[in-house]
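Researcher: Structure for this, please.
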Amino acid sequence: MNISNISAEQRYQLTQWRVGFLVVLTIALSACATSPVTNESQTRAVHPIEGIWRIDDAASYIEIRPCKNDTEKLCGHLIAFDGNPKARDYLHPSWLHWGQKLCGSLIVADLEQSEAAQIYRGTLYDPNEGQVYNLIVLAKSRDEIEARIYLGASIDEAIGLGVGALSGDTGIVSLLSFFTRAGIGREHLGETVQWRRASYPIETCSAA
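Model: Predicted structure, token format:
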């Protein structure tokens, strides 16, 4: 376009168009420069129990992190243990996981934060027994977890049933069910263990 051949009104409109274009371009570039880069760690709160934990005296370690299929829950995978790192699980009750490698297997599943911020509830799988237990986790400090592992009846249930019995809200069937399960063995009422936080470098089974 030859600007010398256009009218003053056209020249004015062209100038206004150029100014408007520069303003829009500046705003767009500014928005791109100031928009935060988001990722999973920035868009969610990190739970105090995430990380690597030694879960027993046999040098077994799990890494707790958001579950792959549900990031609102936490899962713990076995990353180190005392034994053959290529060992397989032939005791798992689920045929989908029967024969899987112990290394990297799911030990803690579906941990959900309760109304009390430091308490989580989920399940724990013991590959030595092929048994899935209920699990209550209390974050006592940054480096210590108190884990309540039980099958069937829990202390919380006992308290709830006791209160219900006193108020008349608990039926005889519920009480009989509880005492039957509790009488089978101590694992039905559960046991409390301490988990200690660990950190890299540890010799993980995947590196073996």
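Researcher: Any notable elements?
Model: Residues 77 and 106 are 5 Å apart (CA to CA). The beta strands are 51-54, 61-66, 74-80, 106-113, 119-126, 131-141, 144-150, 191-198.
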